[in-house]
Amino acid sequence: MGKYIARRVMQMVIVILGITIISFTIMHLAPGDPVDLLAGRTATPEQRAHIKHLYGLDKPIIIQYFAWISKVAQGDFGHSYISGRPVLTMILERLPATLILNFWAMIIIYLLAIPIGMLSALRQYSWFDYIATTVAFLVRAMPAFWFALLLVYFVGMRVEGIEIAGMSTYGINWGVQSFWTVFKDRLSYIVLPLTVLAFGGMSGITRFMRASMLDVIHQDYIRTARAKGLPEKKVITNHALRNALLPIVTLIGFELPILFGGAVIIETIFSWPGLGLLAVTAIFQRDYMVVMAFNIMGAVMTVIGMFIADMLYLVVDPRIKYD
Q: How much of the chain is in helix, strand and coil states, percent to nearest 5?
């Protein structure tokens, strides 16, 4: 186990370094230049050259990369070209809003999608299966931004008490007003973006769970368990469900970068003050330091998520060993 963990850590470091090299190169080759925003359209060539020299943008790209990655290794993600603030501070300010939204979305997705997918498989070709499959395909085919705009128009603009932008009402904070007052205020803002995220994620997980459960319940060991006279509930929960969850465990690994990365489109539509909205703004402004910080964060969360998924395999399936 120790050798496996050490080998995986080395692989994770190599993957992250490779991603940073590719991302850094693409960012600097993309059209646009932060100097255009920093200097303005009326700046003289001398002023533009001075700004480039000030930020080190006049150096070869490989020199810029090593200067940047050496600071990142020390926990310094640099300063924003646009605001001049530390990038890490900007991210930490937006992180709680993103975690709140995506954490509750993941809870709702897995609490509903797994039992719905399981029931669809156990009642294959029933009315429940047909309804769940139809709804899953419709939601999967519908773009998230379109679903969000529909909710804004038909719910947010017509139902009293449902807000369509922001995260909270100014002046309503924990410790100032009562718990229920603050809770209802936060709920009125989060209900629409949370609905979009939850429905979009549930459709895929439901189909994965249904397919996995259908594959498992037709295996020989399930028929053997039934032939021994085990109760159907025990056959499903103790034997079928644990093995059907293996593909879902893999998906959990991909959810970690989503949890910390933010839902870019949804946060932009609902003006949710999270990391997704910050990332969109940084991309349009060519704020290299902020964008690269997001790329690193996404890469780290992805490889950590895959590692956690591998470890969860040991819990779900005791036959798997990493010796």
A: 75, 0, 25
Q: How far apart are CA 232 and CA 289, in angstroms?
A: 57
Between 70 and 315, the higher pLDDT residue? 70
Q: CA-to-CA distance for 290 and 280, rounded, in angstroms?
A: 10
E strand intervals along 196-241: none
Q: What are the φ and ψ backbone dihedral angles of 177, each rounded to 5 degrees? A: -95, 175
Contact criterion met (CB below 8 Å) for 287 and 34? yes
Show Cβ contacts of residue 158 under 8 Å, excluding neighbours closer than 6 positions. none
The mean of the pLDDT values for the chain is 84
Contacts of residue 202, Cβ cutoff 8 Å, sequence gap at least 6: 108, 109, 112, 113, 116, 136, 139
Q: 65 CB contacts (<8 Å, ≥6 apart)? A: 20, 21, 24, 25
Structure tokens given for 147: 């679903």
CA separation for the pair 274, 201 (Å, rounded): 19
Beta bridge partners of 163: none
Mean pLDDT of 53-69: 85
**Under CATH, what is the fold of the domain 87-316?**
MetI-like fold (1.10.3720)
What is the number of alpha carbons within 13 Å of residue 267 lying toward its C-beta? 25
Alpha carbons 233 and 312: distance in angstroms, whole number: 24
Q: Six-digit token pair at 31?
A: 């059209």
Give residue 239's identity as a one-letter amino acid code.
H
Helices (H) and strands (E) in the chain, counts: 15, 0
What is the distance of C-alpha 200 from the center of its chain? 12
Q: What is the pLDDT of residue 119?
A: 92
Bridge partners, 86 (sequence order) = 79
Dihedral sign computed on CA atoms, order 85, 88, 93, 98: positive
- Tell me the whole-structure pTM to 2 decimals: 0.81
Domain ranges of the chain: 2-73, 87-316
Instruction: Name 317's Cβ contacts closer than 8 Å, sequence gap at least 6.
Output: 242, 243, 246
Angle CA 144–299–303, to nearest 5: 105
